[in-house]
Protein: HTH araC/xylS-type domain-containing protein
Amino acid sequence: MLERPLSKYRLFDRSSLDTFMSAVSGAFGGNGYLSAGRKQTFNTYFHGLPLGIGGVYYLEYESDMLVSWNVTVGSLLLSIPVAGQASVSVDSRVFKSTTSCAALAQSGQRLEMVIENGARHIVLRVNSSAFQGALRRMLDREPAEPVFFEPEVDLTTVANWALLRIITTMIEAIDAADQLTGLAMQSFESLIVGQLLLGQPNNYSRELFGESGSPKSPAIARAEDVIRANLGEPLTVDDIARGAGLSKRALQTGFRRAHGTTPMAFLREARLQRVRTELLGADPTNTSVTNIALKWGFQHLGRFAVAYHRRFGEAPSQTLRFRANQANELS
Structure:
């Protein structure tokens, strides 16, 4: 890979911090703030271009940087250090990002990074819809909820090392060619999305691999369909078993083998994900947490609030205020 890759696609070179922030916001979406160290001059390189799945970018920092960014809804950012390191916080997770550990933040999360002078990063932006389409093909069904990845990406594992090689090979191909064909770019993009799903732990990992590696029972697939079609209804284990044509015992055993959990826990997780997705996209001036929770089958609001906080690390009201907070920070 070139010392400064993607240089044919310059978005920003050595200008003001305000101009840099505008370029970052235009490329990544979302909003937040950036601040530089005490050097008199602000020198940063920012190259990149859009892809069908999102975009790929190169950033080089010639001063210490503090980044605090709200990732836009429906998007994922993967920041891979090529040189240097950064202290990272993704919501409540804190870790050190180095050339052997990338940082991942996605829809609605807050990414904070303290980046040292001289650091160089490759940043990949991926639209959430790309993962939904890939999951649909890999699982042969409609995904019940959005994919959520672990934020700390270990680049020393075989799977994530392969992901890094795919990304760097794509960048090298872009730099070497005047223009890559649409088919070539689609091949790279498909590999990246698939490798992320298979290599980085997420809420579909168990299903993608399976505890026994054996195909999922058609009856369990029917049970999942019953759950997805009735998330807002007061479902019981009996209802799910009857809809799938199974006994309660066979249903419980099948879910333990396929997902390592119970049918009701699977139902609760699907409902929580639907609530979160709707809260992130809702207008807090004319929407209430109560209405959305009831819509997706949570009848006991106290238990719902506890389960939501345990799953996502924040109260549902905080999620609902996310869009309003974005608007306030921009004003």
